[in-house]
Specification:
CheW-lke_dom, five-stranded mixed beta sheet, Chemotaxis protein CheW, mainly beta, CheW-like_dom_sf, OB fold (Dihydrolipoamide Acetyltransferase, E2P), CheW
Length: 193
Amino acid sequence: MKLVGQSAMNAGSSIDEMQDENDAVSLCSMFAGSESFGIDTRKIREVLGKRELQRVPMAPSFIGGVVPYRGEVLTAVDLRALLGMSENSATSCVLVLEDDEVSERFGLMVDEVGGVVTVNRRMLETNPCTLEARGKWLFDGAYKMQTGLMVQLDPKKLRPSRLAETGLFKRSVTGHMTGHGGTGAMDASTDSR
């Protein structure tokens, strides 16, 4: 698995400058297109690396397929599709995420997985206006890194069952599922499921 390097200086503050250890949060960095994202490492069960997924007929566009994982078959959410990006023809990296509150495991498809970066949670900016509207409802906010913005994803909002509940993806006349771009059809950030 190829790891993409990240700078040790993160989110405008060094580890020494953090008030206490509760300010530090470790994020696994990942990429979809040219955009950088992060998820709290405590929510990631495993990084599977590049995988070919089994496509699911008639599934919503945000479902990239299913992937076998330790005797289970997990649904994999395609981050590129959720954000309205063009499909990546290459195989995607799959991370296994786990939501302990509802005992649900699922995969997240991204282009590349970077490394683990430590950031100061106090430096999280609530969805800066520079972020595009598409997908904002999936974000907790963004950190200013030396290389640009790293958007923190909310794993609860990425759960396949949660995405299906949003109503953002409706069946079209042809029977395929289509997305409404996540630009305000529902403010999913107010629902804590």
